[in-house]
Amino acid sequence: xxxxxxxxxxxxxxxxxxxxxxxxxxxxxxxxxxxxxxxxxxxxxxxxxxxxxxxxxxxxxxxxxxxxxxxxxxxxxxxxxxxxxxxxxxxxxxxxxxxxxxxxxxxxxxxxx
Length: 113
Prior knowledge:
Layout: E1 7-9, H1 10-16, H2 21-29, E2 36-38, E3 43-47, H3 48-51, H4 69-81, H5 86-94, H6 98-112
Antiparallel strand pairs: 1-3, 2-3
Helix pairs in contact: 1-2, 4-5, 4-6
């Protein structure tokens, strides 16, 4: 359900990266993903052009590089394939930094390969 060609809903964003909608809503609430309000119900939507940008904290304090949605989606897929339920997998990934996400992906792919 795209709007204006460059806008997608939070659900579409979550579906694209195979993460739960609540994870994306959390990123929006934390200010990690920019959004626009659309329509009379002020639905939060994301610009397609912002999708592939790494999620960056809105803080001046130096922080470790956060994971990007494709990496988060890839790790979630691996966790779900290993038998973990979605709520637990989201909990594992929610607070991870990029290095940890990449290391866990490498470990899990190595174990499966």
